[in-house]
Write a structure and sequence with these properties.
The complex is a heterodimer. By secondary structure, chain A is mostly helical. In chain A, 75% of the residues lie in helices and 3% in strands. A two-stranded antiparallel ribbon of chain A has the order 1-2. In chain A, α14 packs antiparallel against α15. By secondary structure, chain B is an all-alpha fold. Chain B has one domain: Helix Hairpins, CATH 1.10.287.3510. Helix content of chain B is 75%, strand content 0%. Classes of the chains: A mainly alpha, B mainly alpha.
Chain lengths: 640, 102
C-alpha cells in the first residue's frame, strides 16, 4: 500500500492543531487527538490486511539529505513486523486516548496533555516505519522527549520533575552508545539505510567483529529505552506521571521500542553470537531481577512498572535465543494486558485517591468492573491459560528450554515470582476488608469501556499463537521465510504443564500469605532478613549509579563552577578594572591639558584687555595724537 | 613774486603749529584757537595754489571764503559746547574731562 506514510501523519496533524487552537478545539483537543489516532488505527488495520492478502515488503523512498557527493535516502518499510507493531501501537494508543478523556478530566493543562500524546503517537508510529537508522534515531529521541514531557506533566510536583529528568538522562546514556553504534555502522556499511545494510551483511561485506560492536552498542540504546538492567532505574520513578502515560508509554509502546529495534536490526544481531548471548542473558537476568523487587513493592503502579521491566526482559531473552516471533508475540500480548492493568490501576487511583495497596482492600465490591478487568489482566500476566499471556510466555519458555538452560531457569523463576506478586497485589487491593476510609466509586464509562475492550482482547488474542505442529500462525506470519519451528510434542507439553502448575502454585502461595493468612509474612521477613532488605531496597542499584555517575558529575560541576567564578569572572572583572584605570588617565589629561588650553585662551584675552584698557584715557587730545601719528604713518607709506 | 614753495612752507608751518597746539593745549579755548590756526594754514595753501597755478580761476578763492565761513560757524558752535561743558564740569581743561577713562 502506498499510503502507509500517512499513519504517523494524522497524530502529528492533531498535535499541531491542538497546539494552535488549544481549548477552542473540539473537546478541548481530546477529540482531535482521538480522531487522529483512530485514523492511524484504521490505516494500520488496512496495512495489516494488505500484508495478509499477500502484498509483502513494500518500500517507499524519499531523498532526505542531498549533497554534492551523496544522497541520504529515508524510506518506509511495511513488512509483517511493521504491520504487527503498527496495529498494536495504534490500537492500544487509541483506547488509552479515550481512557484519558475520563482520567484527565478537569486538569488545567488538559489540551496540552492530548497534544503531547499525539506527538508521542506520531513519533512512535514513525519509528516503526522508518528504515533509515538515522531517521529511526530521530523518532527514537522524539519519543524519549515526549516521555520527558509526559512524565513531568505535573511538574509542579518536585518528584515528577525529578523523575522526568532521570528518565531522560538515563535513556540518554543508552542513546549515546546507540548513536556511536549507528555511526560505526555508517562507517562500515557506507549508509544507514537498512535494506542496503542488510544486503551487505548477507554478502559478507562487513567484518563480524564490527557487527558485534555495532550490535552491542545498539543494544545499549535498547537497554535504556526498554529498561533492562542496569538502565532500568528510570521506569519505576516514571510512575510519577499520569496513569494513561504509564499505560501507553511505559508499558505498551515506548518501552517496546527497544525490543522493536533489536527485531528490526535482527540481521545485525544474527551475525554475532556474542551479541545474541548478551541480549539473552541480560534479558533473562532482568526478568528475574525485576520480579524479585516487584514482590515487596507496595505502590500499585510501581508493581506494574517492575512487572513491565521483567516482561521486557522476557522479550529480550527471546530475541537473544533466536525466538524472533516469540518475542514479538509476547510484545503484542503484553501491550494488551499491561495497558489493561495500568488502566485498571488508574481507575483504582481515580476512584480511591490512593496508590498504596497496603491502604486498600475490599475494592471488589465497590469497583466491580475494575476488579474484574484487573483480575483478567493479572491472570494473563501470570500466564494462566487460555488467556493471552500463557501462549506468548510459553513460546518463550519453550525456546529457552530448547536452547539455553540458564535462561530457562531464570525464565521459570521469574514466571513463578510474577504469578506470586500479581496474586499478592490483587488480593491486597481488591479482596478482604478495607484497610482505610475512602468512598471508592467505579470509574465512568469512558474509562471502563476501553478497559473492557482490552480485557476481551486479552482473552482472545492468545489464540493467534496457539501451538501447532509446525509453529504457530503468528510465527508463520512474521517469518514466512524463516526456518520451520519444529517442536517435539513432548517437551512442548512438559513446558506448558510445568508453567501452568508453577503459576497456579505461586498464586496459591500468594493466597496463603495474604488471603487466608496461613503463612506469615512477618516470619518470612524475619527469617530471610537480608534477602528481604535487598529486595526492599531494589538491590541498591540506584545508590550504585549515584556513586558511580551522579556524584562524580556533581564534583566535575563543582570544579567547573569554581573555575567559572574565580578564573573567568576574575578575568572579566580585571578587564573592567583596567578600563577604569585607563579612564582615570583620560580624566587627568582632560582636566590638565584640555581644560588648561581653554583656560589659557581666556587668560590671554583677559591679559590683553587688562593691558589694552590703558589706551582709554578719556582725554580727547590723546586720541587726536594717535590719529595724527596714524595719518603720518599713512603718508610715509604712500610716499614709499 | 616769491616762489610758490615759500608760501606753501608758510601754510605748512601754520598748520603744524595748529596741530601742535591741538595736541598740547590744556585749555579747550586754546585748542579751538589752534584749530583756527590749522584752518588758516590750509587757507594760505589754497590761495597760493590759486594764485600761482590756476591763475585764471577764482575757484581757490571761493573755496577759501567757504572755509572762513565754516570756520566761523564752527568756532561759534565749539564755544557753545565749551560753555556747556564748563557749566556741567566746572572746568575747561581738556585733560580733566575724562569720563570715558578706563
Amino acid at each position: 500500500m502506498n499510503s502507509a506514510f500517512l499513519i504517523p501523519l494524522f497524530p502529528l496533524l492533531a498535535f499541531g492543531l491542538i497546539l494552535l487552537f488549544g481549548r477552542r478545539a473540539p473537546g478541548q483537543g481530546a477529540y482531535l487527538a482521538v480522531g487522529g489516532i483512530t485514523a492511524s488505527c484504521l490505516l494500520s488495520f488496512w496495512a495489516l490486511a494488505t500484508i495478509l492478502a499477500g502484498g509483502s515488503r513494500s518500500l517507499r523512498e524519499y531523498s532526505w539529505i542531498v549533497t554534492s557527493t551523496t544522497t541520504i535516502k529515508v524510506g518506509i518499510t511495511l513488512d509483517p513486523l511493521a504491520a504487527v507493531m503498527l496495529v498494536v501501537v495504534s490500537l492500544v494508543s487509541a483506547l488509552i486516548f479515550i481512557y484519558s478523556i475520563g482520567y484527565m478530566h478537569g486538569d488545567p493543562r488538559y489540551p496540552l496533555f492530548f497534544a503531547y500524546l499525539s506527538l508521542f503517537a506520531a513519533s512512535m508510529l514513525g519509528l516503526v516505519l522508518m528504515n533509515n537508522l538515522l531517521a529511526f534515531y530521530l523518532c527514537w529521541e522524539l519519543v524519549g522527549l515526549c516521555s520527558y514531557f509526559l512524565i513531568g506533566f505535573w511538574f509542579e510536583r518536585p518528584p515528577a520533575a525529578r523523575a522526568a529528568k532521570k528518565a531522560f538522562l538515563v535513556t540518554r546514556l543508552g542513546d549515546t552508545a546507540m548513536l556511536f553504534g549507528i555511526l560505526y555502522l555508517i562507517f562500515q556499511a557506507g549508509t544507514a539505510e537498512l535494506p542496503v545494510v542488510f544486503d551487505k551483511i548477507h554478502a559478507g561485506l562487513i567484518p563480524q567483529s564490527a557487527l558485534t560492536v555495532i550490535a552491542l552498542l545498539l543494544f545499549c540504546g535498547a537497554m535504556g529505552k526498554s529498561a533492562q538492567f542496569p538502565l532500568h532505574i528510570w521506569l519505576p520513578d516514571a510512575m510519577e506521571g499520569p496513569t494513561p502515560v504509564s499505560a501507553l508509554i511505559h508499558a505498551a509502546t515506548m518501552v517496546a521500542a527497544g525490543v522493536y529495534l533489536v527485531a528490526r536490526c535482527f540481521p545485525i544481531f544474527e551475525s554475532s553470537a556474542v551479541a545474541l548471548q548478551t541480549v539473552a542473558y541480560i534479558g533473562a537476568f532482568t526478568a528475574f531481577f525485576a520480579a524479585t523487587i516487584a514482590v515487596v513493592t507496595n505502590d500499585i503502579k510501581r508493581v506494574l512498572a517492575y512487572s513491565t521491566i521483567s516482561q521486557l526482559g522476557y522479550m529480550m531473552m527471546a530475541l537473544g535465543l533466536g525466538g524472533y516471533s516469540a518475542a514479538m508475540f509476547h510484545l503484542s500480548t503484553h501491550a494488551i494486558f499491561k495497558a489493561l492493568l495500568f488502566m485498571a490501576a488508574g481507575s483504582v487511583i481515580h476512584g480511591c485517591g490512593a496508590q498504596d495497596i497496603m491502604q486498600m482492600g475490599g475494592l471488589r465490591s465497590k469497583m466491580p468492573v475494575t476488579s474484574l478487568v484487573f483480575l483478567i489482566g493479572g491472570l494473563a500476566l501470570a500466564g494462566i491459560p487460555p488467556l493471552a499471556g500463557f501462549f506468548s510466555k510459553d513460546e518463550i519458555l519453550l525456546k529457552a528450554v530448547e536452547t539455553d538452560k540458564i535462561a530457562a531457569v531464570l525464565g521459570f523463576a521469574a514466571a513463578l515470582l510474577t504469578a506470586f506478586y500479581m496474586a499478592r497485589t490483587y488480593i491486597l487491593a481488591f479482596l478482604g476488608e478495607p484497610r482505610s476510609e475512602f468512598h471508592a466509586h467505579e470509574s465512568p464509562r469512558v474509562m471502563t469501556v476501553p478497559m473492557a475492550i482490552l480485557a476481551v482482547l486479552a482473552v482472545v488474542v492468545g489464540f493467534l499463537g496457539f501451538p501447532q505442529a509446525r509453529g504457530t500462525w503468528f510465527h508463520h506470519f512474521l517469518e514466512p521465510a524463516g526456518p520451520p519451528v519444529v517442536h517435539r510434542w513432548l517437551p512442548a507439553l512438559a513446558v506448558m504443564s510445568a508453567s501452568v502448575v508453577l503459576a497456579g502454585a505461586s498464586i496459591l502461595l500468594g493466597a496463603a500469605f495474604y488471603h487466608w493468612r496461613t503463612l506469615s509474612v512477618e516470619n518470612f521477613r524475619r527469617r530471610f532478613r537480608y534477602l528481604y532488605l535487598a529486595m526492599k531496597n531494589k538491590w541498591w542499584i540506584d545508590e550504585a549509579w549515584n556513586l558511580i555517575l551522579v556524584r562524580p558529575a556533581f564534583l566535575v560541576q563543582g570544579a567547573l563552577a569554581f573555575f567559572d567564578l574565580k578564573v573567568v569572572d576574575g578575568l572579566v572583572n580585571l578587564v573592567g578594572l583596567v578600563t577604569i584605570a585607563l579612564t582615570y588617565i583620560g580624566r587627568v589629561f582632560d582636566l590638565l591639558v584640555v581644560d588648561g588650553l581653554v583656560n589659557l585662551v581666556g587668560w590671554i584675552t583677559k591679559q590683553a584687555g587688562a593691558t589694552g584698557r590703558y589706551l582709554q584715557t578719556g582725554v580727547v587730545q590723546n586720541y587726536l595724537l594717535f590719529v595724527f601719528l596714524g595719518a603720518l604713518l599713512l603718508f610715509l607709506f604712500a610716499l614709499r | 613774486m616769491p616762489p610758490l614753495t615759500h608760501l606753501l612752507a608758510l601754510g605748512g608751518m601754520l598748520f603744524s603749529l595748529g596741530v601742535f597746539g591741538v595736541l598740547t593745549r590744556r585749555n579747550a579755548i586754546g585748542i579751538l584757537m589752534a584749530i583756527e590756526l590749522m584752518l588758516n594754514g590750509v587757507n594760505i595753501n589754497l590761495i597760493a595754489f590759486a594764485r600761482y597755478v590756476w591763475a585764471n580761476s577764482a575757484l581757490g578763492q571761493v573755496f577759501v571764503i567757504f572755509i572762513i565761513t565754516v570756520a566761523a560757524v564752527e568756532a561759534a558752535v565749539g564755544l557753545a559746547l565749551i560753555i556747556s561743558i564748563f557749566r556741567t564740569r566746572g572746568t575747561v581743561n581738556a585733560d580733566e574731562v575724562d569720563l570715558l577713562k578706563w
